[in-house]
Input
Amino acid sequence: MFYLKYRPRTIDEIDNTRVRSILQKILESKKIPHALLFVGQKGTGKTSAARIFSKAINCLNNKFGGKGKDFEPCNDCANCRAIARSTFTDVLELDAASNRGIEEVKSLIREVAFLPMSGRFRVFIIDEAHMITPDGFNALLKTLEEPPDSAVFILATTNLEKLPTTIVSRCVKVNFGKGRIDDINNMLKRIIKAEGLVFAPEVLHLVAQRSDYSFRDAAKMIEEIATQKMKTLPDVEVFLGLKGRSDILEIIAEKNSKKTFQWIEEFRGSGGDFKNLLEDMLDKLRLQLLIKKGIAVEETEKLNMTAAEISKLIKLLMEAYQLMRVTPIDSLPLEIAVSEFYNVT
Ligand SMILES: Nc1ncnc2c1ncn2[C@@H]1O[C@H](COP(=O)(O)OP(=O)(O)OP(=O)(O)O)[C@@H](O)[C@H]1O
Ligand SMILES: [Mg+2]
Ligand SMILES: [Zn+2]
Output
């Protein structure tokens, strides 16, 4: 899978420019903080960066190892290799999503007392740190107050607000935020180049825009597009559920039930994404509503519906959107919404 195959392995490969330069500065300062906190949305590289950082400070072939000219991990020495395989005794990872209790945290903390065996630092990566229980946080806090010189904690979380401020204030915070479109675009370029694929720049840009600001989602999306051998922008627009977004609303406005259901069936058959479709329909309807109320200027064609009909349809589509999470057939929520709409109008 692309997102695993192209997981960044060096600081330089972290496509998130801001994070890359912060991590570089920390490494160059040679004063490694005892606790780092990586905060950011899903799929922005927190876990990847934690592993790269552990390698960098324990690598035998870079400046930390007294060789080489920079702080990049070599990914080739015994330490780097062992860290990549998760068999390095001085890098301990705790996934707090599945090991959140006091016992798990305690057994990790017991390890803090030991000196590194093969590395320079013992690194304790706590992923999904917001899942730790209050007891666990208390135990951790004591350790963070007086960590041994050789210990480095890296906490990663998507939910900063769920961490006690006492913990947060003891960490150097690195904000991963959301993925920037340009950075995601660069990751996509890196992937397709390595895969020997060719895509129009507009295709990559569209994928980056539609990735929910997540590098992982973008990597998955481009892989699917590549697997399905889509090349052109129109193909990809269909795949992303962007095709004919005005058409479907116009057809619904015509109140032609048969035509509407045919359109949906074709959309499903062509592999369209209903979640994206609903988002776009809602966007468009909201704009139409604002036009009707005289708030927005008319820069798009007017839809042949009354304000009441538009509100009703918005409501039904929002219900359909919620149902997307549970439906076994992804066209079904839209089909129900449309059929209810026709019943009341
Ligand atoms: N900054 C980045 N540069 C390049 N690729 C990235 C970056 N961030 C994420 N990726 C891609 O997304 C995948 C997931 O990244 P990672 O697991 O590090 O994210 P995360 O922030 O820990 O996500 P989560 O919060 O869901 O655990 C990586 O394997 C990689 O393919
Ligand atoms: Mg992660
Ligand atoms: Zn190395």
